[in-house]
């Protein structure tokens, strides 16, 4: 039985209680939301996960950090460092996107050290194994794909990105869109090539029922990938993107009816005036299933600073109902991320998610801001720094620039407004 | 005659033509907007400014960088470096917020080196001069204030922040608000103290007509300061803030009727679900006058990363109609900004303004994104890097992580989606 099965039968599980408690919400809100397919709990049922987490309507916005090796940058030790960094700065989940021959070995190592839900994109391992065994990723087949899924399920992966929406139909709609950037999803591009080369339907779509069986057995959440997401603002919300979203909506319903937890992946590059529209469209087409967005990036020009572009889009998206933000690092469009890129990406995404929660207001969202502001009002620098989103940076900043009067900072010195207002209060009292 | 006077008489000036050309808009759009008080041109008429700029409804969103010394950090050479940095990364205007005895000397130096419109907050110089000459900033008076205004006007300052909305009335409304953070504006706190200590009305309000005369003579734009802006998300859009905004609306009308260009300053700390509401309220109360916002910051917890929090709020604000974004640096709430803080602040604000312009779409806003995306699609790394928002950082990133195949990057290596889709196109053509 999956968490969704239990929720449909109105049976509260220990896991639901744990999640509800952590979120400071009533467990009944949570079970209702899961039963409707509007929330999920990310936890493989064969693995003893330290920190499972919930994603969905009544819950705090979660953030994911992508790590993993590429052919050019392949070191398990380095990826483990990135994992540690991501989790320490507040990533709620991690995805291992390794796309090398060492994929399964990297995944094993990451799983052992990863306390939070772990996601993968199984087509990557399938593609590299097909290339190794048969000479080309174009030769991957149903058996290989299902083997990879089971192998990863047994290791304890909590959620799979499944690019089942890149189909003959959605690809033909994509052609009508006359895109500037074509397909920019790695998984999407792999499957488009596979479909064209083999003149067959996408195996993740064709054998979706088999995938559901595996997901159901392990209670793995399916994250239906958006292989046709826009890769430039000019391609946002186009015919290709929407055609795929409709397929994802249909597959999400099928998963839900089969007791499989499901979330939907979304764009990508989206101008700020289309962000809210994208969220509303997904919620409508996918019957309120949790929405997991990558960014969105609100401009194409910010390479080196795409964590900021992504935080802008992500905060607005989450405040309008997106449930899960995939971080974007400063290295996006430029290189494989460094440790520092991971850190900056997680922090930017965390700011976006938290600021959105102040608007959505699940349980006790503003407690953190209240404590910070009270410390600021009281000129209590120790608490302000301890509670800031990255105390190491705040400490470094404060130490680098010391005021004569230790109660203020070097920005305003004695003209600190908080200090002046303490004086004003005394003037008022004298009245 | 001010630019507003000319616009009211439907006389197109050389300056209007220059601005319209730079903005790629019809000059008739601009003159209409100025005549309605919905746009302004920042340029003092006694100074030969290299790059005047327009701010308002039909124009691109502009960004301002604050520089200036404090008692703890007082070096003219350092401020000139910050000026150079701010302008080189794209600040459209600069404000000198120096609040030391060297204020006028610092301003002279900055004016000489500043090619873009320069703003000040004259109450700072007035406060420090009163403190020096009479022992306390509480002793500044009408004559001193008007002297400072004329002195700065003669130097060629293009816009003045005037905190005329902090009045006995708005302060009494503020008390009803029972704020968490009270007044957090330096100018607001100085004037609140002055009002309480002297038991008199705010001289910037009391002698607003005299200020208008000076502004009119030099065609200095008045930026009506929000001394009561919220300093925590809990204080956003409260009675105190709105009471001040109503006064600013009334003063803006008075300025407009007197041929003085005017813009309105706005918050501050605002939760994301109140940002659009704040913009609409200002536009309504102030008859569509340009809105100049500080951030807004969408959470109180991001000290060290407030440039990101500010970019989120700023982008949403500008896309909803704010016209002018004051940058926030990573040092906000922590220290006087470093050169690097200025750089990061300008870049974050520039991303926010540009992304908002993609939504507002004044003349040719998306050309930059189009060029970047075409270069990306063509795997033309040289152009991608040259056009990125900070080519130095993009170059550094690219050089630090070299792929074997020079056409891709180390993130995806041979599984680069753009490379794969080039292959897919060949497969399609074979059909």
Describe the structure in brief:
The structure is a homodimer of 431-residue chains. Helix content of chain A is 52%, strand content 10%. With 431 residues, chain A is α/β, with parallel strands linked by helices.
Write the layout of secondary structure elements.
Two copies of one chain form a homodimer.
Chain A: H1 3-8, H2 14-22, H3 27-35, E1 39-42, E2 53-56, E3 62-67, H4 76-88, E4 93-96, H5 103-113, E5 118-120, H6 122-134, H7 142-155, E6 159-162, H8 168-177, H9 186-198, H10 203-206, H11 208-218, E7 221-224, H12 239-257, E8 262-266, H13 272-285, E9 291-294, H14 306-319, E10 324-326, H15 339-360, H16 367-377, H17 381-387, H18 391-400, H19 417-430
How many distinct beta strands of chain A? 10
Q: How many domains comprise the coordinates of chain A? A: 2
State the helical fraction of chain A.
40-55%
Oligomer: homodimer
Structural class of chain A: alpha/beta
Note the run of SSEs of chain A as H and E: HHHEEEHEHEHHEHHHHEHEHEHEHHHHH
Distance between the termini of chain A: 71 Å
- How is the main sheet of chain A built? 8 strands, parallel, barrel
Per CATH, the superfamily of the largest domain in chain A is: Radical SAM ThiC family, central domain
- Could you say which overall geometry of chain A the principal axes of the C-alpha atoms support? globular
Low-confidence stretches of chain A: none
Which second-level CATH architecture of the largest domain in chain A applies? Alpha-Beta Barrel
Number of helices of chain A: 19
Descriptive overview:
Two copies of one chain form a homodimer. With 431 residues, the first copy, chain A, is an alpha/beta fold. The first copy, chain A, has two domains: 3-361, Alpha-Beta Barrel (TIM Barrel); 367-430, no CATH class. Helices cover 52% and strands 10% of the residues of chain A. Chain A has 19 helices and ten strands. Chain A has helices spanning 3-8, 14-22, 27-35, 76-88, 103-113, 122-134, 142-155, 168-177, 186-198, 203-206, 208-218, 239-257, 272-285, 306-319, 339-360, 367-377, 381-387, 391-400, 417-430; strands spanning 39-42, 53-56, 62-67, 93-96, 118-120, 159-162, 221-224, 262-266, 291-294, 324-326. In chain A, the strands form two sheets. Chain A has an eight-stranded parallel beta barrel, surrounded by seven helices. A two-stranded antiparallel sheet of chain A has the order 1-2. Chain A is globular. The interface between A and B is large, with 103 and 103 residues.
